[in-house]
Amino acid sequence: MVYTIKEDITIAKVQKWGNNQGLRFPKEILKKVHISIGDEVDISIKHGEIVIKPHGGKGELMKKVRKKDHELEMLDEYDFSSGVRGKYAKRYEKGSNVVVLDPDVAKVFPDRESVNQSLRALAEIIHRREQKSLTSR
User: Fold this and answer.
1) Which residues on adjacent β-strands are paired with residue 28?
2) 25 in a structural domain
3) How many structural domains is the chain composed of?
4) What does the DSSP 8-state code read for residue 1?
5) What are the E-state strand segments in 47-96?
6) What residues contact residue 2 under an 8 Å CB cut-off, 6+ apart?
7) Which pTM value belongs to this model?
8) What is the domain range of residue 129?
9) What are the tens digits of pLDDT across the range 108-135?
């Protein structure tokens, strides 16, 4: 989740990604500092603040020569031959949650249906315990 307050001030929420935490950067911000997907960055702490700069050695801001946009986005390894354009567009418009499962959990829950079925069963157990707790007071 990213909110832009003013042109040069953006508030981002730190999110959990696996065992790490991460931030999402709006494309416009990365473009202004010449950082593209896949670039290395230097991360440091100065005066209690996190500083992120394009990796350029010796602290110098090094402008990258950008490849054409289509070269950055699509690699030969991507196979969209059986893709369906807009397949999840309506679901995305309504709002969606993406959860990345740790590898050990993904082995037990290999697909969306098995995850949802288990979570619904767990939610029902929690609901019943809450109801039982309320009636026993």
Assistant:
1) none
2) no
3) 1
4) -
5) 49-54
6) 10, 11, 12, 13, 24, 25, 26
7) 0.35
8) 92-137
9) 988 888 999 999 999 999 999 988 888 8
